[in-house]
Write a structure and sequence with these properties.
- With 565 residues, this protein is α+β, with helices and mostly antiparallel strands.
- The protein has 19 helices and 15 strands.
- It has helices at 3-28, 39-47, 66-79, 83-109, 114-117, 135-148, 154-158, 163-185, 188-202, 211-221, 233-253, 263-266, 271-287, 294-305, 307-326, 333-348, 370-384, 389-427, 460-468; strands at 127-128, 131-132, 435-445, 448-449, 476-479, 482-485, 492-496, 501-506, 513-515, 518-519, 523-524, 528-533, 536-541, 549-554, 557-561.
- The strands form three sheets. Strands 3, 4, 5, 6, 9, 10, 14 and 15 form an eight-stranded mixed β-sheet that branches. The chain has a five-stranded antiparallel β-sheet with strand order 7-8-13-12-11, with no helix packed on it.
- Strand 14 and strand 15 form a beta hairpin.
Length: 565
């Protein structure tokens, strides 16, 4: 590379990083205090009193996430729960992932060859060190912006337990770029570094297990990009060998071939379920169905889950795959590139394709599509190359506008939920009581996690009080029920009768009851009975301590209920 070319590339990268940095902080600035919720306090529970070396055992979590735990424990030791350092680490990783995505998009988009170079862009007159901003630059820039400003990537950037998604994506994109560099220039150093980054990704998160399949698919359909001189089975085989070794390590140290949710979940290869979920992920990015009103969204989910739809989608994908092989040279370069990118998108989702796809509320589960979404946007931008200039720019403007609008809405939800969480934690004042009954408090805010609790030990609020505001509860703690919050002022009208029966009625319709991370109905414990009502609940108090406290949330404050003896 000549001096002028190197100088141009440095300036280009500085320009791109600068724009990405500004864009991310403009849209995410309001969330800088958010994300210290739910699984994050569960993480702090595992870290409490554990020696640093226990990151090698992931602090008891059943998965090989040593890299993730190594960084998380360091962050916690250095910063505690101070918001600013966590915010800048996570947003910076997102910016860098956008920049790596930009570079990878540029590499892939040259497959379209002349069809890109002949297109004049709105910024074609702009000169940077004597070189015009060509359409490859512009298209890759749009890809990266769509990735950075996707409303469905907010969960990863904001929620502090999602470091694994950010860092795993960083490692995989780095590995991908280095592998392409090797295929272009034949430098073994690049190949060795590619293997190294992939290895780090393996011990960061299981999403990395899709990478070897992605590499094979890329080489099969992207031969025009690389020199066949450097392609041989041995250059790809180590990715598979490392993956097999990873499975054996799981079996040895965890007792299961797959950690995290376990073999029963991750090795469930239900074709209909997988096809349905892949269609949901694809259509979510394309149609923004998560933002639809409930009735339309429910109809779309029913359509995606119908066996005819799911199996038709499988047949369609297989047909397109076969067509791509048979008529590869006759297909337009832009369409060929779209097929390549969307194939990589679906392969990137394979490790999570048999899990559930949340659609009822906002936020939850979006993190699973973070890495894959980059390839969706590469394919989308490549498809737009088939249209004339102004139609193409209209679609770019449309997708960016809709993305920014919905991202701002999601980030506002995170901001509002954080205000409520902080208010409830700061207002809590019953640490010394022998028994505390939290009759009702928010599980989520429009789907954004607040005190979601999968522990089945009533720990969500208790752990948050201990680790976030240093208010350890000394007595017994009972989380009677939770609800999904729709406005920051949601609360209850309360009645208590002489028999010790408490009736809570929501101010407004639209909320329902949760417990242990799921919707709940009537249940009974030694101390009380809980039952639902059309617009609230009824709690019958039985055996409780004489100084027992009964509280419920009202907006961001607690209110106390006094029950007669």
């Amino acid at each position: 590379m000549s001096y002028n070319q190197n100088k141009y590339e440095l300036r280009e990268n500085a320009l791109v990083l600068g724009v990405f940095f500004i864009a991310v902080h403009v849209v995410y600035g309001k969330t800088w205090e958010a994300g210290f919720v739910t699984d994050f306090t569960g993480l702090l529970e595992r870290l409490d009193g554990a020696p640093f070396k226990d990151f090698l055992h992931c602090f008891g979590f059943p998965a090989l996430h040593q890299v993730t735990n190594f960084f998380l424990v360091i962050f916690y030791k250095l910063f505690g729960t101070a918001a600013a350092p966590w915010y800048f680490i996570y947003t910076s990783l997102h910016v860098v992932n956008g920049w790596l995505g930009y570079r990878l998009a540029k590499k892939i988009l040259v497959l379209a060859g002349p069809s890109f170079q002949q297109v004049q862009t709105p910024v074609a007159a702009f000169k940077w060190s004597g070189q015009a901003l060509d359409s490859v630059f512009f298209s890759a820039f749009i890809v990266a912006l769509l990735f950075l400003l996707s409303p469905y990537n907010a969960e990863v950037v904001i929620w502090k337990v999602c470091f694994n998604f950010l860092f795993c994506t960083n490692m995989l994109l780095s590995s991908f770029l280095l592998l392409i560099n090797y295929f272009e220039k034949g430098k073994k150093k690049d190949l060795l570094f590619s293997y190294s980054f992939f290895t780090v990704a393996l011990f960061t998160f299981e999403l990395s297990l899709a990478f070897p399949m992605m590499v094979v698919f890329f080489l099969f359909f992207g031969k025009k990009l690389v020199s066949e001189k450097y392609i041989n089975p041995w250059s790809v085989a180590p990715f598979f060998i490392l993956s097999v070794f990873y499975f054996f390590l799981n079996k040895i140290f965890i007792g299961s071939w797959v950690g995290h949710y376990g073999e029963g979940v991750h090795l469930n290869f239900d074709v209909k379920n997988i096809a349905s979920n892949l269609l949901k992920y694809f259509s979510k990015n394309l149609l923004y169905w998560r933002e639809w009103e409930h009735g339309r969204k429910e109809l779309w989910m029913s359509f995606c889950e119908h066996p005819i739809t799911a199996y038709s989608f499988v047949i369609l994908c297989m047909t397109l795959f076969a067509t791509g092989i048979i008529f590869y040279k006759k297909i337009k370069l832009g369409i060929r590139l779209t097929g390549l990118s969307w194939g990589l998108f679906f392969l990137a989702l394979i490790p999570v394709a048999n899990l559930y796809v949340v659609w009822l509320l906002h936020g939850e589960n979006d993190r699973y599509g973070y890495f894959a979404s980059l390839f969706f946007y590469i394919g989308l931008v490549a498809l737009f190359q088939s249209f004339n200039n102004w139609i193409r720019y209209f679609f770019y403007a449309f997708f960016l506008t809709v993305s920014i609008f919905n991202l701002n809405k999601i980030n506002t939800y995170w901001q509002e939920s954080t205000t409520v969480v902080q208010g409830l934690l700061n207002d809590f004042r019953w640490e010394e009581s022998s028994e505390i009954y939290v009759l009702a408090f928010p599980e989520n805010y429009k789907g954004i996690p607040m005190f979601k609790d999968f522990s089945r030990q009533d720990l969500a609020l208790k752990s948050a009080l201990k680790y976030l505001v240093d208010k350890p509860v000394k007595g017994q703690f009972f989380q009677v029920a939770q609800f999904n919050m729709n406005t920051p002022s949601d609360g209850f009208n309360v009645e208590v009768d002489a028999a010790g029966i408490i009736k809570l009625e929501f101010y407004e319709w639209g909320s329902w009851w949760w417990r242990n991370g799921l919707g709940t109905g009537p249940y009974e414990r030694e101390q009380y009975n809980f039952s639902t009502l059309p617009k609230g609940c009824e709690i019958k108090i039985k055996e409780v301590a004489a100084d027992a406290v009964f509280i419920y949330s009202d907006g961001k404050k607690w209110k106390e209920v006094f029950v007669p003896d």
